[in-house]
Design goal:
This protein is mostly helical. It has four helices and two strands; from the N terminus they run H-E-H-E-H-H. Strands 1-2 form a two-stranded parallel ribbon.
């Protein structure tokens, strides 16, 4: 049985805003370096998978645009239109990588939910 001795299981969590824990992190008491739960939950993520680059779909209406823009602000993610020129997208990817590095290479959406759960 592959789950024998497993410490974590899977969950699907929807974090709509800061009040729900979006962008917040909780210290993992079992982490040898005092980091948050992100690595234990998600493993090693690159900046894109970790949520530091968000795309606005040009098809989005104004309300959808504002939701993505607010999410980017809360999570310190870089926000770019999906049809932006390649040079602009590469620049956004560079900024996303910098935000990811500055945040300690953790998930932009956070892990506070895990401690609260």
């Amino acid at each position: 049985d592959k789950t024998k001795g497993a410490k974590l299981s899977c969950a699907c969590v929807f974090l709509g805003d800061e009040n729900a824990g979006l962008g917040k992190h909780a210290k993992d008491p079992e982490s040898p370096d005092g980091s948050c739960y992100c690595r234990a939950i998600y493993g090693d993520l690159d900046p894109l998978l970790a949520g530091y680059l968000l795309f606005n779909r040009v098809r989005n209406n104004k309300d959808q645009f504002e939701v993505v823009q607010r999410r980017a602000r809360i999570t310190k993610a870089v926000f770019v239109d999906d049809l932006s020129p390649d040079q602009e997208r590469r620049g956004a990817e560079t900024f996303a990588r910098q935000h990811w590095e500055a945040s300690g290479r953790v998930a932009a959406w956070g892990c506070q939910w895990f401690a609260d759960w």
